[in-house]
Amino acid sequence: QKEVEQNSGPLSVPEGAIASLNCTYSDRVSQSFFWYRQYSGKSPELIMSIYSNGDKEDGRFTAQLNKASQYVSLLIRDSQPSDSATYLCAAAAGGTSYGKLTFGQGTILTVHP
Amino acid sequence: KAGVTQTPRYLIKTRGQQVTLSCSPISGHRSVSWYQQTPGQGLQFLFEYFSETQRNKGNFPGRFSGRQFSNSRSEMNVSTLELGDSALYLCASSLLETGGSEAFFGQGTRLTVV
Hints:
By secondary structure, chain A is an all-beta fold. Chain A has no helices and eleven strands.
């Protein structure tokens, strides 16, 4: 079983819709969670971080964390074609995990006009 | 504020050779981590350095090594290159000393081993 799993995708949504990306993790000591966006041929770009249960909103992005269910999600409202990319979920144990992020395999999102 | 800078951007090497990649973190960031990204395995953690000390290491063979300098710049070295080492190598820097903090990636070095 992979430590961080993402919905396999690819996910295709029309412009203006809500895109929902999901991630589960197996290591209960994970404390910090991140969403990265990676365009084809580029490096990952941090778009959201979340550390506590509940929702965290930043512009069109909302991250949700449920530690009891070991579940993290990212909602993208009013999706734009420029949001088309691979979205990577990452988890870190905190404390002495020192730099180690465990990534999911990524979900490819396509937003079509 | 300048981001994480990696050099070179592209490299082509022959099996058996060695290679050194360089990473300059965001100013003020002292934690530098290295990752390997391949289509099959995704992003995998190699190691992390803080104040010139390796604090954490992933499951890679000893051919993969690194170091960090007093100005927080870091290098990673891969010796006796194998075809399977072809990948995008990413460096990330973090501001906080503790684990689990936000990490910002450089543009990466695309290594091709032929």
